[in-house]
């Protein structure tokens, strides 16, 4: 897979760049369907994108093939970190 621009990712997602930018900035939530599309685009699991852990508390590993560029890997990692932070915030709010 070659380097994907935000415009190309948005096109593959079937959304405009504005919607994609809102997702990336955290001002718009990702639907389950969109999460699946992101996983398909980057050829990783949804668990990987969400940073989920197994019952053994081991991070679910989805290998990133050598054919992914550093830019694509960084984009995936940023998305994972965003999702993890949102998840922790939402669950912390429920505890308070």
TrEMBL record:
Residues 4-49 form the HTH cro/C1-type domain. GO terms for molecular function: DNA binding. InterPro entries: Cro/C1-type_HTH, Lambda_DNA-bd_dom_sf. SUPFAM superfamilies: lambda repressor-like DNA-binding domains. Coiled coil: none annotated. Gene3D superfamilies: lambda repressor-like DNA-binding domains (1.10.260.40). PROSITE patterns: HTH_CROC1. This is HTH cro/C1-type domain-containing protein. It comes from Lentilactobacillus sunkii DSM 19904.
């Amino acid at each position: 897979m070659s380097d994907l621009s935000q415009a190309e990712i948005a096109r593959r997602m079937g959304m405009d760049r504005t919607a994609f930018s809102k997702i990336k900035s955290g001002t718009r939530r990702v639907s389950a369907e969109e999460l699946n599309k992101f996983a398909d685009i980057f050829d990783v699991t949804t668990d990987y994108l969400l940073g989920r852990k197994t019952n053994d508390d081991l991070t679910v590993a989805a290998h990133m093939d050598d054919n992914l560029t550093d830019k694509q890997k960084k984009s995936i990692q940023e998305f994972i970190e965003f999702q993890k932070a949102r998840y922790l915030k939402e669950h912390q709010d429920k505890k308070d």
